[in-house]
Amino acid sequence: MTNAGGEAYLSPASLLNEPTIIRESTSMSSIMQSKNMGARLDKLFRGTTMFFAFLVFILLLGIIVTLFVGSLPALKAFGPAFFTSDAWNPVEIQFGGLVPIYGTFITALIAMVIGIPVSFGIAIFITELSPTWLKRPIGIAIELLAGIPSIIYGMWGLFVFAPLFADHVQPWINDNLGALPVIGQVFQGPPMGIGMLTAGFILAIMVIPFTSSVMRDVFEIVPTMLKESAYGLGATTWEVVWNVVLPYTKTGVVGGIMLGLGRALGETMAVTFVIGNAHELSASLMMPGNTISSALANEFTEAVGDIYTSSLITLGLTLFVITFVVLAIAKLLLIRLSMREGKQS
Amino acid sequence: MQVSSFSLKATLLVAGLTIATSAFAVDITGAGATFPYPIYAKWAESYNVKTGVKLNYQSIGSGGGIKQITNKTVDFGASDKPLTPEALEKAGLIQFPAVVGGVVPVVNIPGIADGQLRLTGEVLADIFLKKITKWNDPAIKSLNPSLALPDSAITVVHRSDGSGTTFVFANYLTKVSKEWSSKVGADTSVAWPTGVGGKGNEGVASYAQRIKGSIGYVEYAFAKQNNLPAVTLQNSEGEFVKPSIESFQSAAKYAKWESAPGFYEILTNEPGKTTWPISGATFILMHKIQDKPENGAEVLKFFDWAYTNGSLMAKALDYVPMPESVVKLIETSWKNNLKSKDGAAVWTK
């Protein structure tokens, strides 16, 4: 940049014949100056970008400290029992986080159980099986799904999905899965259309676009030569997917799943609409429950008193830690996967 | 270039003028309860047209309102749940009721229309305590011999967020059921023995409409505007009453405001033959010692104007204006309790 600028300044000066020397000397010094300026600007630029980058650390630290300080009163009052108690009584100021923590994990688990196979299927269809003219419309549809705000999913879930679910799916689940021994009670409950199972379904729908588009992208980078060779050896599509595509892309696939899991754990509005928001611990997935983020969304504005507010902040801190641990596990998994790959080759 | 720089100057000039003019009038700020927000906003709009005084009200919730007025970041706070006289004393605040609202149990039972189902307070409490779980329970049947009540489960719908509506409703249940008062109690959110939680009145209403056999509670205005079938309730004098502006006003009239220090009065289970038993006022909080008495006086002027001229606007939005007798009590309390730093009364009308 500075060089180019210097030359541009120099060339018109050298074209003028008469006071060349003087002009050149001044232009020389101006080159020096502009070089100096450039170096300073470079430094400034470096400093600014570094500041922006460190801002992330400062923000992260600030959030952790705020959450921790905010949660101290509740942690002092209840101790570690906060995480194992299912009490939530604002009248007697007794709080425990078990119900929302349980709800967060269960709804995310349901979302993953449904979301992963579906996303996998979508990605495989687009990359391996779909006729070319269909690839683009499906791809665009998935990206559009990813762009829908979560509150729209919540409203759709409550007004459209929940009644259909209550009238047509839940009675069937009650009669068939509910009749099974032992695990039957997980599927028994009044067909209200709202509850943890519904929340899990909605979350699955919200997670699918993220997971499937990451999977599609990584499946697409598998070299055609590898796949063609496998087909040439007489492998079926399934064998190619399972033995060639997946091993080649497993880091990316795990990354996509973790992206989806992160969304499922933290999703707020859509869940708040359909989960039923009850601080009640029940084995049945048909019963209303609560997640950490929906409890926060519901109760923060009108939480009166230090311990109540602090208990909610403690829940927030818990969600933060859970997400952090999930991300850390994902990173570890990816490192181990790539190490194993290194050994194999 | 010339023209654009001129127009820029003109814009700056105009902007400067607007800032200058708006600085002359005292703007008042308030924060708190969400339930009365629509009527405060309506009053503020008309008041601004009339006097030029702007009211900036943030409906951030009662909890936030109490916090903000305690920290003196606003001129007045608003709360659906009255502060106890001790809490007021401690924070150096006074409170007074602004408007009254009613809480209405609504049901979704196929074949049962608005006002048809009769309940007593005790039966209502037992339903919310999960002691009565079917609509054809003998306790409900004996109150409604002519109704065909189905053999279906009752699903309770309550608020999932903290709310003055919940406080008023739970407070009523503590007055009519010993078991409720010992097991659950009353606050802006309580540990519900059963049921699903909806966020806001609209959340409760949409769950109640969605789930057959459900019973929930919402603000009267909300039940009316959405045509939710309400319950007819027995009041403290044994009469079965339907919710209406008149029956809430009756509760406000019969309430013993004179003997309630700091207007700590919850309008549940009040006497009066026509009284709806679950009503409640929403309150305004102000500091006893006004650091900026001119702002305090503006707040009082605004509410004085609202009490005298705002009744029709309130009724149009299905709020119940304060009865005249109560307004007199409120303004006496202003005169006696609100002082500037040097001890002069802020309200001198």
Task: Outline the structure in words.
The complex is a heterodimer of chains A (345) and B (349). With 345 residues, chain A is mainly α. Chain A has a single domain, classed as MetI-like (MetI-like fold, Orthogonal Bundle), CATH 1.10.3720.10. Chain A has 11 helices and 2 strands, in the order ααββααααααααα. Chain A has a two-stranded antiparallel sheet with strand order 1-2. Chain B is built from 14 helices and 14 strands. In chain B, the strands form 3 sheets. In chain B, strands 1, 2, 3, 4, 6, 7, 8, 11 and 13 form a 9-stranded mixed sheet that branches. A 3-stranded mixed sheet of chain B has the order 5-9-10. In chain B, strands 12-14 form a two-stranded parallel ribbon. The interface between A and B is medium-sized, with 31 and 33 residues.
Question: Nutshell version of this structure?
Answer:
The complex is a heterodimer of chains A (345) and B (349). Chain A is an all-alpha fold.
Keywords:
heterodimer; A: 345 residues; MetI-like fold; two-stranded antiparallel ribbon; 2 strands; B: 349 residues; alpha/beta; nine-stranded mixed sheet; disordered N terminus
Annotate the secondary structure layout:
The complex is a heterodimer of chains A (345) and B (349).
Chain A: H1 2-15, H2 20-78, E1 88-89, E2 94-95, H3 98-129, H4 132-147, H5 150-176, H6 196-220, H7 224-232, H8 237-266, H9 269-274, H10 292-299, H11 306-344
Antiparallel strand pairs in A: 1-2
Helix pairs in contact in A: 1-2, 2-11, 3-6, 3-8, 3-10, 4-6, 5-6, 6-8, 7-8, 8-11, 10-11
Chain B: H1 2-24, E1 28-32, H2 37-51, E2 55-58, H3 62-70, E3 76-79, H4 85-91, E4 93-108, E5 118-119, H5 121-128, H6 138-143, E6 155-159, H7 164-176, H8 178-183, E7 196-198, H9 200-210, E8 214-219, H10 220-225, E9 232-234, E10 240-241, H11 245-254, E11 279-287, E12 289-290, H12 293-309, H13 311-316, E13 320-321, H14 324-337, E14 339-340
Parallel strand pairs in B: 1-2, 1-3, 5-9, 6-7, 6-8, 12-14
Antiparallel strand pairs in B: 3-11, 4-8, 4-11, 4-13, 9-10
Helix pairs in contact in B: 5-7, 12-14
